[in-house]
Amino acid sequence: MRNRTPLVIATGVALAATAGIAPATASGGQGAGKPVVRVIATGLDNPRQLSYDSGHLYVAEAGRGGKKCLGEGPEGETCVGLSSAVTEIYWDGGAWKHYRVVQGLPSGAAPDGGFATGVDGVSALHGELWGVETFAPPEAGVPTTPPWNKLGKLLKISHGKARIAADITAVELKHNPHKASVESNPYAVLALPDGRKIVADAAGNDLVVVSPHGKAKPFTVFPDHDRNQSVPTSLALGPDGYLYVGELNGEAQKPTARVWKVDPWTGKILGWKSGFGSISGIAFNSSGDLYVSQLFQGVVTKVSHGKRTNVKVPFPAGVAVDPYDGKVYVSAWSIADRDGTVMEGGKTPGGQVWKILGF
Questions:
Q1: Is residue 115 scored above 80 in pLDDT?
Q2: DSSP string of 58-93, one letter each residue
Q3: Which residue of 142, 154, 199, 274 is 20 to 30 Å from 233, comparing CA positions?
Q4: DSSP letter at 96?
């Protein structure tokens, strides 16, 4: 599968920087009341974006690839299979439980199941659930028959099935809004209260807006900066009503990534916060505090009244906040399948979701 490149190559550069990270430590903020971490879900396959809706937490599992391995490229072999899923995590009977609300969706990964791409984004709102699948061009050798025809699409998830709601990659192929190259990797989705869906195309460096009737069109194009492309990876609607977009821009040693502020009606860029490492997830609490996953720095950062506080999380991805109690949820070990992936001669733990208290 093409389009693993922006995330996977950068991950390979930065593995050493995040090895051996321990949870439940905070830095850069007030001294008292350190946040506490609880692991609420394990056995996940490359958990990515999170979405919280009415007491239910959803995680996009990019999967673990499969047995059919394709070619050699900059990232090595890509092994494909139908192992991607969307999983619901919930509290029941005094314990956290989880189950896959839909599974059997396309996935591409390293031979050991790590560094996957598949369903990378999920958004739940008022009981409706949406996901986005990455794209692979026909020349990659990936099958094109169902369910592989879901590649590059926005998916409506209901009753254990995922149906195609809009063709995101078609927007890139037709318009190529960024103009650098024709590539597509739908990576994050956000359902808006008015029925529209916003999709971040990480390889296209843009946002696509999908109408309530399924019409997709270009919305926002992000400029290159600091000698890197933007690579939007994450979306959130702030309590101020504006759209916010996190990007992967930069390397672990260069905190140049931005959280962009975007008009949710026109797509116009209104400003940004900078100084982050590669961003893989963003969320807000009801007070307007911003939470940012920095994938290779191995931290989730809280930005509150100009102060930044970090909690260490290994390879964090999606972030979500319970609007009622302010508890923070994050995908951890997001580059690993349920069995862990090889890193520096050893294996990581498998994919997890953490709950952070007091953050």
A1: yes
A2: EEEE-----SEEEEEETTEEEEEEEEEEEEEEEEET
A3: 142
A4: E
Backbone dihedral angles phi then psi of residue 140, each to the nearest 5 degrees:
-75, -15
Residue with structure tokens 């208290």?
357
Rounded CA-CA distance 169/216 in Å is 10
Assigned token pair, 322: 């319970």
pLDDT digits (tens, 9 = 90+) for 185-216: 999 999 999 999 999 999 999 999 999 999 99
Rounded-to-integer distance, Cα 314 and Cα 22, Å: 8
Is the overall model pTM greater than 0.85, yes or no? yes
The helix/strand/coil state of 16 is helix
Question: Distance between CA 294 and CA 301 in Å, rounded?
Answer: 7
- What is the share, in percent, of the chain residues with pLDDT greater than 70? 90
Residues 100-123 have a mean pLDDT of 97
C-alpha dihedral (100, 148, 124, 160), degrees to nearest 10: -40
pLDDT at 330: 98
Would you state the torsion angle of the CA atoms of residues 286, 205, 62, 151, taken in this order, to the nearest 10 degrees?
A: 120
DSSP summary character for residue 348:
P
Cα–Cα nearest to 264, from 282, 238, 301, 302 = 238
Omega before 147 within 30 of 0, i.e. cis: yes
Alpha carbon dihedral 307, 200, 47, 281, in 10-degree steps, equals: 0
Cα–Cα distance between 318 and 322 in angstroms, integer?
14
For Cα atoms 193, 166, 125, give the angle at the middle one, nearest 5 degrees. 25
